[in-house]
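Reviewer 2 asked us to include a model.

Predict the structure of this chain.
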Amino acid sequence: MSNSVAKISPEIQEMLDASAPSRDLVRGGSWMREQATKYLPQFPQETDDDYEARVKSTWLFDGVGKTIEDLSGKVFEMPVILSDTGTDLDMWQYNVDLQGRDLSQFARECFDEAQVSGISFIMVDAPARASDVTRLQAQQQNLRPYFVGLSIEDIIGYRTDIIDNTPTLTQIRIMESITEDTDDEFDPAVLEQIRVLTLPVEEGRIVGTVNVRLYRKNDAQEFMLYTEYETQMPRIYVAAVDLGRDGFMKAKPCHARLAEINLAHWRSQSDQANIMHHARAPMKYFHGYSREDLESFTEGAGYAFYSSNENAKIGVVEHSGAAIDAGRTELKDMEFQMQAMGLQLIMSRSGSSTATGDMIDENKVNSRLGMWADTLKDTLELAFSYMAEMAGITTEIDVIVNKDYAANALSHLDMDAINKMYLAEVISKQTYINEAKRRNLLSEEVNPEDEAEMIEMAPMDEPDGNIG
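Predicted model (structure tokens):
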């Protein structure tokens, strides 16, 4: 019965299946080639050797991965920080996971993962410590709460209940990898472990604190209970970064449509590379030669071939090239479709465009990013409130996440318009400087009043020569 602890729940399996294309694509071309027939079908009458050669010659246009990278780059153009609380949280944010990553680095990984799968998770945990450990001893031994980032692939299943008319996480199963020392100091054992957190509930009420069970495999490779202990946690400290929210603890992948086109591009590019190979190496045909003649055939510079049949011929069947052009056009069309669905940030448009059209496209992306940034902010604030509760800290939590990237996306035409407004004295110098700072053309430290004072104090240019 205990081995069922490793069974993936239907909710998690549904999210894994939906996000599989995106998760596979962002792992790169090498990983995609390993998937073989999962995404690249083998044609009828195509030999295994021919198929393997075709797979090896297929390269990946990294549409999904590059889009995620660039969208995250806009959100994390400025660091994510916790506003000053006057508590230990202020220092903990600079090593928020006890692995040397600060809050911004940790948050970006969670944000990237949430874009791929639609959801990621932040668990707040703390090292076990004895009840008689003092606060000073805890600080010296670094026994304090920390963040753990979890992907959808780390979650085996969960259970929720309605508590006080609110959906509440009451159980979660997490797959972990741990290392144990062996007789060989250079070859530690890597073990799979399942962590089960359970919040006891009866008749819609919480009736205790969180229980922790750890399961490990026995000699028969079945998961059995390894250890169990009670905690003082009044709730399960797991928060979801659900960018593709589809319900409580549920989400759909954010770039599913983009992934479909990216996969179509993957297959079409494979066909294109294959047909280019055959077009560059035309097929030979032999007329009037016996099988024995052909078995001794050798091709290359300095070789000759003969036949006693005066009607014998050797020729080639060449490709017309029409299919090659059609394939190239199809690839370009799909790249344009990906551009329209998210890659406008990283690919230049073909043909003419207007500043208004560019701004409309940017606003669509930025409004979506703004909502995602709000979701990330809310989740981080919830995680910090868990951390504060676990440490017995009472404070206001405010995490600052950049959302001022709409202005940065404006084209140079917009800055030209601002220049003209300033020269025509339609806007003030301070407004002009503030707009330039928003576009990262000036440092945030530039102060309009200081600039005016320095201009006034600067010496005037002296004329050449002496004034007689």
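The longest strand covers residues 166-180. The longest helix spans residues 355-391. We have added this to the supplementary material.
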